[in-house]
Amino acid sequence: MFINPAFAQATATAATGSSMSGMLVQLVLIFAIFYFLLIRPQQKRMKEHEAKLKAIKKGDVIITGGGIYGKVISADIEKDELQAELAKDVVVKIALSTVRDVVKDEVKPANNNKKSKK
Asked: Is pLDDT above 60 for 15?
């Protein structure tokens, strides 16, 4: 009944201050989890992809962003250009940034599944 109003305000302010610091700790923890689970692996993949693109040389088989396979005839990394042969006597100029992947093995023609006659 006879509580000092100034004392009551001081305890309310102290409780609010501690809850703010607790909330700040939670936000920092959430950011750290996002960084290690999402941001860092994505940056690592991007660096690997850039290194793979810079290592493209004549004779490599590539896949473009549109899903087209081609064999590199010439690569000019500084100009961000490639010349790739898609089929016999079909040569196209491709921007290096549109290359999705470099295929390690040669692309083999599809199996026709023709049965041999005996």
From this structure: no
CATH class of 57-103: mainly beta
Q: In the structure encoding, which two tokens stand for residue 46, read together?
A: 């991007």
53 close to 99: Cβ distance less than 8 angstroms = yes
**Claim: this prediction has a pTM higher than 0.90:** no
For residue 69 the two structure tokens come to 């396979």
β-partners of residue 76 are: 81
| Residue owning tokens 């302010």 | 13
Give dist(CA 87, CA 54) in Å, integer.
24
Q: Using only C-alpha atoms, what is the Rg of the chain? A: 30
Would you list the domain boundaries of the chain?
A: 7-54, 57-103
